[in-house]
Amino acid sequence: MRHLRAATARGLRTGGSGGRSVPAGRSRKDASLHRGALAPAPAPPPARHLFSDPAEVEALRRNLLAWYDECKRDLPWRRLAATESDSNRRAYAVWVSEIMLQQTQVATVINYYNRWMQKWPTLQALSQASLEEVNELWAGLGYYSRGKRLQEAARKVVSELAGQMPRTAEDLQKLLPGVGRYTAGAIASISYGQATGVVDGNVIRVLCRLRCIGADSSSPAVIDWLWDMANTLVDRSRPGDFNQALMELGATVCVPKAPLCGECPVKQHCQARHRMEKELTVASQKLFGKPVPVPDVEDCGVGGCPLCPPATEPWDSSLGVTNFPRKAAKKQPRVARTATCVLERRGCHGAPEYLIVQRPSSGLLAGLWEFPSLPLAQDLQEEEQREVLADHLRAWMGQPVAVGSLQLIGEVVHIFSHIHQTYVVYSLPLDADITLDPALSPSRWVTEKEFYASAVSTAMKKVLKVCEKQRGEESSLGKGSKRKRGPKPQGAGSTGTQLSLRAFLQTPTSP
Hints:
Elements: H1 28-31, E1 33-34, E2 37-38, H2 54-71, H3 76-83, H4 87-100, H5 106-119, H6 123-127, H7 131-138, H8 145-160, H9 169-175, H10 181-192, H11 201-210, H12 220-233, H13 239-252, H14 271-287, E3 334-346, E4 352-358, E5 369-370, E6 373-376, H15 382-397, E7 407-415, E8 419-429, E9 443-447, H16 448-453, H17 458-480, H18 501-505
Parallel strand pairs: 3-8
Antiparallel strand pairs: 1-2, 3-4, 3-6, 4-5, 4-9, 7-8
């Protein structure tokens, strides 16, 4: 029995342009343990679910690699892997791409990858960069801890491994933080030619359709079988190309919702397609009144098969090959609300400047910069939100903040992988500088250009755009009105007017 360590998460390439994802796995030996007693190992799945025919395996390899040679996409990391003679630089180039592709689409990654490799072409260059620089380049790519772990691992290679990348999948996974089984297999096979398979989201989809695997594809037992299949299939003479071909097939042809089965180079090996064709043949014979033999459309005909769909979720003829893979229902993201305040002043040249603060060095969006923010309870009313935000700013500035000086701009929704986040955006225009408590979070004033060049999240960019849009609307409204207007009273409903420092720092008075 084999032991399967947890695989690294890697973004799923969907619709032909996405990234990759790798679910965790464990060995069937682990699954067979029950309350400390060793239970009998389950019977292996029937041959239909496996790649047990050497002739079929050889044909599948040959067809898939021929298709890949003709149809593969021209991607910058592939060019580097194919042309770089230095093995350490080649492995580093592949490694960066694999980390960036975790949960991120290929089209998005390309520009980030090119900028990264131009700035830090080697492990040594990356190891000398600051986390601030890494976050600035990574800003907008999402899942920011990936960049931090990549830099930490680069420093380890330089300081502890004499600048030499580990040469096998086993050592890559063991020695480098943030590198799991999938990433290690990809680096080892592409960079060093190690004959090891890979299992990411695309590979899971392709294998499940090729072998009618309808059990939960995220379960440890099924993942274990999929790794076995990937290691059986990988071409020994071209392991890196074969693994990329299998992933390319899932990214461009065997896509989740509308697979291009007619263009598939391995369609003759696909059990899901074979089943669909048999059902169409039977339906056609019925339509024309021809004798219909009893169709053999069972998954494998063996009760309790660990790779068949559960009895409660049988094959759905209307879905065809997209019956596979099947996954457990996704956990609903946590709902969160955050109050965010855009503090603005006029800079020395009259252009607006914004105050940003740095997030803690651990946790969500670690080390990134943002507008002053704090979490909100879900049941707070709008006036209560103002009060808690004013208290937060008061503690931060060491001076009182009038609740009525906080101008509500609107709400910005941003979806993280596990959080449905709503930012309640307020604005606080200033006409003078303020003194901040240096013991609290690092902070600085930035221009609009400096803001977008800083390590800020996509959510914070959305927040600033909402504020700028409102300012533009108010400016247009003011220019378009011919009626002479008097000064607006300051309060919760007023917008668009700069406040004096004395006005927003005055102690609130009771009605």
